[in-house]
Task: structure prediction
Amino acid sequence: MPYKLLFVCLGNICRSPAAENIMNYLIEEAGLSDTIVCDSAGTSSYHVGSPPDRRMTVAANSKLGIKMCGHARQFKRSDFQDFDLILAMDKENYNNILYLDPNGQYREKVRLMCDFCSHHTLKEVPDPYYGGTDGFEKVIDLLNDACEGLLKYVIKQQA
Ligand code: 4NP
Result:
């Protein structure tokens, strides 16, 4: 059974699809596509069905040469069972996810993405939606750092 990762933000059009696409890139590079799989979701339904935000697609391509794909969907309760690890981009996402698990049964599966950073000290991935190009590029840098740490973590978990 592959190890399953789910990245979660608010809209599932900026941060979490970027995390998913960066992580898939690193997984492919490591030759681990059969053993680690990724998906992403939003806590809101605002953008269900939409492709990643163009500004994030441009930033991922210009900073890392990554082509983004996917369509937004909303986080659902069954995701708790379907995934091994759920990565929240910020504390609001984290709290909104855990709100759907009132008994705390899946609490251990939910983590903040920035816990896996080794070069950045930010505790949350900032919401770039209402800002400029710079904000999107910073998110890409931060997520690349977190994804590298996350890949090492998952490899250790599987060993
Ligand atoms: P994301 O960014 O949560 O990283 O996908 C946002 C996308 C849409 C909105 C806010 C944040 N919005 O308010 O529509």
